[in-house]
């Protein structure tokens, strides 16, 4: 019986690994790139002299801060941004992050609107390839169904390959020990 389970495991292990090889290759490659994603970001501007105010009472209104952030970003990058796509408030740290198209991010002081840090991050595309979200982008699928299917299939396949790989390594050792005892 152990021999047949070993043969079945080996056959399925080989089939699944062969079928999903290219996906595992891209996941491992993009995983490495995400570990080093700072290499794919470009600092456009940094001002370490400004100390942000952590007091919310001193902060300017968000629309004013967004206008100032857009102006600073346009000035430093020679782009033409009017509105940000996302705003991330950091009241305890005294600053606000604005995210713009083309992967630009600007950090501004909440009290003065002064630009603290401008960066162009290119890790988003790598992340989308890694987790399968790029497929949803191709089909303009906002539900994220393709990403969920991709993640589930590859996650279960990797789990199966890990368990069957361990079994394929361990079972022959166990059989050999049993024969040596007999």
Strand order of the largest sheet: 1-5-4-3-2
Radius of gyration: 25 Å
How many β-strands, per DSSP?
5
Q: What's the mean pLDDT score?
A: 87
Which ranges are low-confidence, i.e. pLDDT below 50, for 5 or more consecutive residues? none
Tally of individual helices = 6
Strand content: 15-25%
General form: elongated
Structural class: alpha+beta
Distance between the termini: 18 Å
**Helix content range of the residues, please?**
55-70%
Order of helices and strands: HHEHEEEEHHH
How many discrete domains?
2
Largest sheet: 5 strands, antiparallel
Task: Report on the architecture of this protein.
This protein is of the alpha+beta class and 182 residues long. The chain folds into 2 domains: 1-39 and 122-182, no CATH class; 51-113. 55% of the residues lie in helices and 16% in strands. It has a 5-stranded antiparallel beta sheet, with helices on one face. Helix 2 runs antiparallel to helix 4 (123-131).
């Amino acid at each position: 019986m152990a021999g047949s389970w070993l043969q079945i495991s080996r056959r399925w292990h080989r089939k699944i690994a062969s079928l999903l090889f290219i996906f595992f290759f891209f996941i491992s490659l993009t995983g490495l790139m995400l570990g080093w994603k700072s290499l794919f970001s470009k600092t456009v501007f940094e001002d370490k002299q400004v100390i942000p105010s952590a007091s919310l009472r001193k902060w300017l209104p968000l629309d004013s801060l967004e206008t100032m952030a857009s102006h600073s970003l346009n000035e430093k990058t020679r782009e033409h941004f009017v509105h940000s796509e996302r705003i991330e408030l950091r009241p305890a740290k005294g600053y606000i992050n604005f995210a713009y198209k083309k992967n630009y991010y600007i950090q501004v002081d909440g009290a003065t609107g002064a630009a603290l840090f401008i960066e162009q991050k290119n890790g988003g595309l790598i992340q989308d390839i890694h987790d399968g979200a790029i497929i949803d982008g191709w089909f303009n699928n906002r539900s994220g169904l393709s990403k969920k299917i991709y993640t589930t299939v590859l996650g279960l396949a990797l789990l199966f390959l890990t368990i069957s790989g361990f079994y394929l390594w361990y079972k022959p050792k166990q059989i050999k020990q049993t024969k040596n005892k007999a």
